Amino acid sequence: MKAPSRTESAEATYVRTTPSSRALYEQACKVMPGGTTRTTVYFAPYPLYIERGQGAWVWDVDGIGRLDFLQNYSALILGHAHPRVTAALKAQLERGTSVAAANPIEIKLAAELCRRIPSVETVRFTNSGTEATMFAMRLARTFTGRQKIARFEGGYHGTHDFAEVSTKPDLGLAGLSTSPRPVPDSAGTPQVVVADTVILPYNDLPSVERILRRHGKDVAGVIVEPVIGAGGVIPGEPGFLRGLRDLTRELGMILIFDEVISLRIAPGGAQEHYGVTPDLTAMAKVIGGGLPVGAFGGRADLMEILDPRLPNAIPHGGTYNGHPLGMAAGLATLEVLTPAVYEELNRKGEWVRGRLREVFEAHDIAAQVTGIGSLFNIHFTSVPVRDHRSMRSSNPRMLRDLFLGLVNHGILMAPRAMGSICTPMTQEDLQALVDAVEQVTIERESEWRELGA
């Protein structure tokens, strides 16, 4: 790939170097709305088409290799085609893919999750984090007999109706930061769902307490990402999650941790890291080893509501729940993820966040680098990023320049400048990321200064 020119725009370089992706996108637009079947992989002018991945690298359909710091939005903690995972999949394929029956390997993965995660006494499998949060909310409503669900502004919990409120609200409609109003994420979200959703400000325990006490016994449960993921990789501040745990217990509300992303920061997830145990936990991504696996689990008395041997049990179907291939890949992944592996990943994450901050400081660019463990996110703002509204102050033009610039320099991250580290990444790979960020900064520095950064 020819090196980007300082005078050529990042988009022009991208278009020049990815003609095969452009051609495939034009074909895709004839058979899929917008040319994709997953909104999150689209970016203008057209998405990148990846042909294969190995370890920390991916290769697009034009044969260009890139270091993959996106890792399917943090799901591939062992990188692409890890030998332990591929061996487990091959072994299971020889036994068949799926049947309408229970299978032995789902018991092994369930037992491992119960062993690792403090809140999980029993567990059920789904096919996505969306399903996991949906059932966790349903359990909270059933157990308490209440209807409302409280959630945090900017948190992402999937794409079911009760999840699609105030994920990225119009701030002109969202009210005060200390007392946010629920705003539907899109047309089609039922008004009854909006009415039964209470919105809370993240990392603001006094306001959270005031709001939850006002709603009193109407709120069945509070769902929270202990580390906001899609909304900017923002960790909960010291005391915030502990205070939330104490408050929900006092008010008789079920506390749900959405650990779909944060489960990668410790063997027992963020709840182990923070020492705060929720009532229910929603999981996905790393527990599937790259396959579509989700799960929800928690206190046995809550999960018992699903027991088909009991009268009035909540039905929980799903043709592919506990899919043997996903169970095999997930179990193989967790077997590799020892405490020492987590420690090394987290050390690398801390190093990357520190070096990225140094790059922006050296060039006098106003930027925040948030994250925890092996996760990081760049925000082009001078405002400390600690909640959704401060995250929204990041300059979108600079984010786009950075994203496309990194693609052109052989680095793949999320368009929102989120990245994650996988086990195959070497120190040289991490340095390559830092060097690429600095090179893009140099190339766009004068333009960014005009934007007031």
Question: Can you put this structure into words, describing what you see?
Answer:
The structure is a single chain. This protein folds into two domains: 10-77 and 339-450, Aspartate Aminotransferase, domain 1 (Alpha-Beta Complex); 83-336, Aspartate Aminotransferase, domain 2 (3-Layer(aba) Sandwich). The model has no long low-confidence stretch (mean pLDDT 96). The protein is globular and about 70 Å long. The chain has helices at 10-17, 19-28, 71-74, 83-93, 104-116, 129-144, 191-195, 205-215, 240-251, 269-274, 300-303, 324-336, 339-362, 388-391, 396-408, 427-450; strands at 50-54, 57-60, 65-68, 122-126, 148-152, 175-176, 179-180, 197-200, 219-224, 227-228, 234-235, 254-258, 280-283, 294-298, 368-372, 375-379, 411-412, 418-420. With 453 residues, the protein is of the alpha/beta class. 39% of the residues lie in helices and 15% in strands. The longest helix has 24 residues, at 339-362.
